[in-house]
Design brief:
The chain is an alpha/beta fold. Helices cover 23% and strands 20% of the residues.
């Protein structure tokens, strides 16, 4: 692979890559604002200027300038190397590039930074971007001088509503055009534009438009400063109080990689952010995926419950497990059905499938109905783990419609199941009212919950370690970001406890034991047997917050 030298470090690159992208791929950040690895090159911020040495035998490009001479107390003619934007210049084998080691590049970055801050309001204490703002970062690393402008700054519109999800502050904007390019290049819809020039420049809605669709929050995500803010996150939390956890979006079968940011003091989720993975979601997420954290605090099941309708009462988990074990033992042989869950982890489904095998139950699957798909990221299957649940079931599993038909025919008299989200109309669930015993492991309320005779509180995807298998059959692990709420436990743990209460051979007490069984029974669904494809993880860290 060809290499070039950046500040005395060898940087490998692929044919056609620019200097900045090759450096980003290996975790080296050249300061920048307008460049983004998933967007076209704009080269308008001039923050990534570097000095490129001429090839052997070549001649350096020089600029004639006027330089201040303190001894003469006047400007005198001088020359300096012509700097070039690293985002636009393609890497060449043997090229020598100077960024941090070039005094000319350092001076240029300091001047660009000062220029960008000339009219910028100093409202960091109330800005949502404070703590991950590139203006703050580069002031510390590239400028470190106080503002010299004493005139009244240029004032622009503030709090402009671009749509249902985005609020714009033109005074903070550095017109890097990232947001415009997201609309044009990712979405393919020119919803944003620029007007005026120079220090009057600002982003505006295209005539007759508003910012809408399924990727509006990506405009806020790519903004390197605090100009674009999410109406959901705006003024809700400070980023330095949030702890990020690498996880996987539960919104659909694409399985976008993301960070879930929670405040550990409140044990509350505040936002999702895309995590770079070119094999899955590249650098993006849809709005529904970005907002999936909200469900962590809505409609949760946090206590065990016994009984139906008016006779329903809360219970302790051990008592509910004993009640469930007694009820299931009374179901006639061959009349018990097990419902796997396409919303639950592969580990949860594996233990439930083992339970079904131990009791000789027929196996079905609960899943959300299809939703609006697109050619960008959104998959028609609204379930994150249909593939994983099917894999641990041996590749053959009945649908909920099949279960309802069996229940209507009297072939099912008891159910043990995961999840409450279903792909049929709630009215179609009427046959379940004929079933005497329905034991459900639930993290959220849903249409199935009203038919349960025993409800056991299961941890959500954000409250337990686990894995999903996406539509590309890529097994992806996720980490626990929050402690389980109330009396909830991981669903696989509850199922194993129920099995032991029934004297079944379900001895799983640790996640590693479940993972070992998964590797033996369905290795294609094991998160370690097929490593997550990470395209530029080091680059993602270098780009974090940009």
């Amino acid at each position: 692979m060809p290499n070039f030298k950046l500040d005395d470090r060898e940087i490998p690159f692929e044919k056609g890559e620019t200097i900045i992208k090759a450096a980003w791929r290996v975790g080296v950040e050249i300061p920048h604002y307008c460049w983004h690895p998933g967007l076209s090159v704009a080269a308008n911020c001039r923050m990534c200027l570097v000095e490129i040495e001429p090839a052997p035998g070549g001649r350096a490009m020089m600029l004639d300038i006027m330089k201040w001479d303190a001894a003469k107390n006047d400007y005198v003619p001088d020359r300096k190397p012509k700097l070039q934007p690293a985002c636009q210049v393609q890497a060449v084998d043997g090229m020598v590039v100077r960024s941090t080691t070039s005094k000319h590049a350092a001076e240029a970055r300091a001047h660009v930074q000062e220029f960008l801050l000339v009219n910028h309001p100093v409202d960091c204490p109330i800005c949502d971007q404070a703590g991950e703002c590139k203006l703050q970062d580069y002031w510390m690393s590239e400028q470190r001088t106080f503002k010299r402008m004493r005139d009244e700054p240029v004032h622009k519109p503030k709090g402009v509503v671009f749509g249902d999800t985005i609020v714009y502050d033109a005074e903070r904007c550095i017109t890097c055009t990232r947001c415009i390019r997201v609309c044009d290049e990712l979405v393919g819809d020119h919803m944003l534009d620029l007007r005026e020039r120079g220090n009057r420049n600002e982003v505006v809605l295209a005539p007759g438009r508003k910012l809408e669709g399924d990727y509006t929050l990506m405009t806020e995500h790519v903004c390197p400063v605090g100009a674009l803010t999410s109406s959901h996150f705006r003024f809700k939390a400070r980023v330095w109080t949030l702890k990020e956890t690498a996880t996987v979006c539960p919104g659909c079968a694409t399985g976008c990689n993301m960070y879930l940011d929670v405040d550990p003091r409140e044990q509350r989720a505040y936002r999702n952010r895309p995590r770079d993975n070119e094999a899955v979601n590249r650098f993006w997420m849809c709005d529904d995926g970005m907002m999936s954290y909200l469900r962590e605090h809505e409609g949760r099941v946090v206590k065990a419950r016994l009984g139906r309708d008016g006779g329903r009462e809360d219970s302790k988990v051990p008592a509910a497990l004993d009640r469930a074990a007694e009820a299931i033992a009374k179901v006639p042989a061959g009349k018990l059905a097990v419902l796997l869950g396409a919303q639950f982890s592969t580990e949860d489904n594996l233990v439930l499938a083992a339970f079904a095998k131990a009791v000789g139950a027929s196996v079905y699957l609960t899943a959300k109905a299809p939703w609006r798909a697109d050619k960008i990221l959104r998959h028609a299957d609204q379930n994150p783990n249909r593939a994983g649940a099917t894999a641990v079931a041996g590749g053959s599993v009945g649908s909920l419609q099949d279960l309802l038909a069996a229940a209507a025919a009297g072939q099912v008299q008891g159910i043990v199941g995961l999840g409450a989200d279903v792909d049929v109309d709630a009215n179609a669930l009427a046959p379940l009212s004929r079933i005497g015993e329905v034991v459900l492991f639930l993290s959220h309320e849903g249409p199935l919950a009203r038919f349960a005779t025993v409800v056991l509180p299961a941890a959500s995807w954000a409250e337990a370690d686990g894995s999903f298998v996406n539509a590309k059959r890529l097994a992806q692990p996720f980490k626990r970001a929050l402690p389980p709420k109330g009396d909830a436990l991981p669903a696989w743990d509850l199922i194993a406890r129920l099995g032991r209460a029934m004297n079944l051979d379900l001895s799983y007490t640790k996640l590693r034991e479940v993972r070992a069984a998964l590797l033996a029974q369905a290795p294609e669904a094991h998160p370690d047997s097929r490593p997550m494809a990470v395209s530029a993880d080091a680059g993602a860290q270098a780009q974090k917050g940009a």
